[in-house]
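Worked example 2:
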Amino acid sequence: MEETMNDYKNMLEESYSFMGDGEHDTDTLLAWKKAEKMQESKESIKVMVSGIVKGGVVADFDGIRAFIPVSKLSLERIDDCNPFLGKELEVRVFEANMDEDKLILSAKEILKERQELSRKKKISDVQTGQIFHGVVATIKNYGAFVDIGDGLSGLVHISQISHNRIKHPGVVLKEGQKVDVKVIDIKDEKISLSIKALIENPEEQYLEEEVEIPEVEEIGTSFGDFLKGLKFD
């Protein structure tokens, strides 16, 4: 769950004690104006993490003490902020409030956008008809999501799991199971997969093994031979 601004209050006060309070001189006022504009424009800036405090890290923003909550540092869960000490981060202004001496930065939104751009590029490289060796990630009532690697996954609808009619995907599949899947459609950046497309249909195999029906000419010839063999009184 994302923190609210009230949740940040104690964390901010902790960061104040780390860097100390500064007076709002001309340079500081200009820095605050810059921060406010950047909040509106969503422009990014690089800052250096200068300290670790409760709930996150602190950095210098043109002479202003800035706080980066732990939830805004990465897309992953962070249990220890120490590896970020002395590290340069690309961030955006999450909140700038000069009256409350509150400047909060975030790297998370930038990371999200980069991750999404990367995902779109990977999806654009996937082609209908491609076959992947995947792993069943999650099972739902309507199908199963399969991880096909490189951060991509697709849905195998329940109708594409087996040639036999099944009531639930869990009858055939289980999470963690390795499966071969075929890409049957890509729409709105969503990948549709099929397992049964790679499995021979028993009904079709049965039809192929049935006795071939003779041609009309063959039937006529056989019937003629039959009549010749008959004796009439």
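Confidence is low (pLDDT under 50) at residues 17-22, 205-211. The chain is about 30% helix and 30% strand.
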